[in-house]
């Protein structure tokens, strides 16, 4: 057993866990933050994406002990109280979800994409960078529209696709 201490969604938590405990299981089972989903157990689907120290990671690929001392943001910590994050609102407005299973991971990945490509985002970039996130329902079109709409709202511009 090992004691891990980290900040999760702005709140410091400290728990004793098995040293082999995955971060995704720690978040879901120990902290009851079930918005982070387990989809494939093989690091391929992206349903478990969270932000570790501000960067998107697949929480099924890291042990809780490796996250000791870090800051984690899950889908539950993205909104500002009752006000949705701009990307959450864009997913709603642009019908970027259907069954909703991949949605938390898609949104967390999308926020990271927008942050890293501030003002320099286009459809091709979004589609390329979402390759690590699988959606079996939507066909991605509305997810991409939502990410581009949120990027425009947050940064004022997006690049047009090359002709």
Average pLDDT, rounded to a whole number, is 93
Question: What's the name of the CATH homologous superfamily of the largest domain?
Answer: Beta-grasp domain
CATH architecture of the largest domain: Roll
Query: Into how many domains do the coordinates divide?
Result: 2
What would the CATH topology of the largest domain be? Ubiquitin-like (UB roll)
Question: What is the C-alpha radius of gyration, as a whole number of Å?
Answer: 16 Å
Fraction of residues in H or I helices: 25-40%
CATH class of the largest domain: Alpha Beta
Name the helix and strand elements from N-terminus to C-terminus, one letter apiece. Answer: EEHEEEHHHH
In the predicted model, the low-confidence regions spanning at least 5 consecutive residues are none
Distance between the termini: 57 Å
Query: What spatial form do the alpha-carbon principal axes imply?
Result: globular
Count every helix, treating DSSP H or I runs of 4 or more residues as helices.
Answer: 5
| Total number of beta strands | 5
State the secondary-structure class.
alpha+beta
Strands of the biggest beta sheet: in what spatial order?
2-1-5-3-4
Please state roughly what percent of the residues sit in beta strands, choosing from under 5%, 5-15%, 15-25%, 25-35%, 35-45% or over 45%.
Answer: 15-25%
Largest sheet: 5 strands, mixed
GO molecular function: anaerobic carbon-monoxide dehydrogenase activity
EC number: 1.2.7.4
Protein name: Carbon-monoxide dehydrogenase small subunit
InterPro entries: 2Fe-2S-bd, 2Fe-2S-bd_dom_sf, 2Fe-2S_ferredoxin-like_sf, 2Fe-2S_ferredoxin-type, Beta-grasp_dom_sf, Diverse_Oxidoreductases
């Amino acid at each position: 057993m090992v004691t891990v201490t980290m900040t999760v969604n702005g709140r410091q938590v400290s728990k004793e866990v098995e040293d082999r405990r995955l971060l995704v299981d720690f978040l879901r089972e120990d902290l009851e933050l079930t918005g982070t989903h387990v989809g494939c157990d093989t690091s391929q689907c992206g349903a478990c994406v969270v932000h570790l120290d501000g960067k998107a990671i697949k929480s099924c690929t890291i042990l809780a002990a490796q996250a000791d001392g870090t800051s984690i943001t899950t889908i539950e910590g993205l909104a500002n109280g009752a006000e949705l994050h701009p990307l959450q609102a864009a997913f709603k407005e642009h019908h970027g979800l259907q069954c909703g299973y991949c949605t938390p991971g898609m949104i967390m990945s999308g926020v990271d994409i927008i942050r890293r490509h501030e003002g320099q985002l286009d459809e091709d970039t979004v589609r390329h960078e979402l390759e690590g996130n699988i959606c079996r329902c939507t066909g991605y079109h509305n997810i991409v529209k939502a990410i581009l709409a949120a990027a425009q709202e947050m940064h004022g511009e997006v690049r047009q696709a090359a002709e």
